[in-house]
Specification:
single chain, 342 residues, 9-stranded antiparallel sheet, 4-stranded mixed sheet, 27% helix
């Protein structure tokens, strides 16, 4: 009789315990679903950040967005001010929550119509990572054409006197940092160095000693190069060899400033023979050089940098080559050999 009398209590107790267990299970399951949303939303933001870094090693990577994060609807935003990807849950579990992942690079949005299930495209442009919901067209960044169709006298002088023209150009840009409206009126050789006379308005201002050394390391088809290592102001020169105006060449577009050349090189995508992509850094060291091939000696800009523990050297033309020339001109040589993808 005692068991019979207590049977309703046992049944009630069992129902209460079962209900509690079901409640605990529901709460736990609900929490697991919320954690799933948290994890997938944060993982999406982090994946987009990692893909941004991939633009430094691939031409234009893309990322397929999931249709939901943990079963919840979301929207993607890119904050250009903080360089961050933001995944914001719109509906479902964790609605109203936002998940951030910052990029250690400047982000710029080309097309912000990001749709779950769609794609996100990336492309490097200098120091900026472009982000878009549609494919990004590579910008055409060419060096400007000369303002005059016929080259100035300094162009012809540089063809025959590459070392002197290299020293004169380096001195001209060096002197422009301290004086405006200047020109080079003459030069003289001093051992392996070149002395250059700077003037303004017909008055001699100061001389420049351009020091350099012969580098016998092959760079592509370049057998050797006289590389400018330092420039120093000295007293005015006497007994110089008269040189044509380098200022005229610079102002008419027949002289490429090194910063402009570096910007052009960085605006392109470069590839090694094994298909690895090389990124030219903004801080690549630059020196004027007279590069000698089996054809002739040419004034060039010589860039040196390290990327992924590999040293690179690039020579690029200091002056554009006149289309009417019969002899071959110089454009680009490098070691290791680089070829442009874009």
């Amino acid at each position: 009789m005692d068991d019979a009398e207590h049977l309703p209590f046992y049944v009630l107790f069992g129902v209460i315990v079962a209900s509690m267990l079901v409640g605990v299970f529901i709460v736990q399951y609900s929490r697991q679903l919320e954690v799933r949303v948290d994890e997938q939303a944060q993982a999406l933001a982090d994946d987009l950040t990692r893909m941004s870094f991939a633009t430094l090693s691939r031409e234009q990577p893309s990322f397929a967005l999931p249709r939901t994060v943990g079963g919840s609807e979301y929207e993607l935003h890119v904050d250009e001010n903080s360089s961050a990807f933001i995944v914001r849950v719109k509906a479902g579990r964790r609605a109203g929550m936002s998940y951030y992942s910052a990029v250690n690079a400047k982000l710029r949005v080309e097309n912000s119509r990001f749709v779950p299930g769609g794609d996100v495209y990336f492309r490097q442009s200098g120091d900026v990572v472009l982000v878009s919901s549609s494919p990004i067209t590579a910008p055409v960044e060419n060096l400007p054409q000369p303002a005059t169709a016929t080259p100035p006298e300094f162009y012809h002088f540089a063809r025959e006197n590459a070392k002197a023209a290299t020293a004169i150009t380096a001195s001209y840009l060096f002197a422009l940092q301290n004086s405006r409206q200047i020109d080079i009126v003459g030069y003289a050789h001093e051992g392996d160095n070149v002395l250059v006379q700077v003037s303004r308005g017909g008055w001699n201002l100061f001389g420049v000693r351009v020091s350099g050394h012969e580098n016998g390391v092959d760079v592509g088809k370049i057998d050797k190069a006289w590389v400018v290592t330092s420039l120093a102001i000295r007293e005015n020169l006497t007994g110089v060899i008269t040189s044509p105006s380098v200022e005229n060449a610079a102002t008419s577009g027949w002289l490429y400033p090194p910063a402009q050349v570096l910007m052009y090189l960085r605006g392109r995508t470069w590839q090694l023979a094994d298909n690895r992509v090389v990124v030219i850094p903004a801080g690549a060291a630059c020196n004027a050089a007279a590069a000698t091939t089996n054809v002739a000696t040419y004034p060039t800009w010589r860039f040196e940098f390290t990327y992924e523990d590999q040293n690179y050297v690039i020579h690029y033309q200091l002056m554009p080559w006149w289309w009417a020339e019969n002899a071959p001109g110089f454009v680009f040589q490098s070691t290791p050999e680089l070829t442009p993808l874009t």
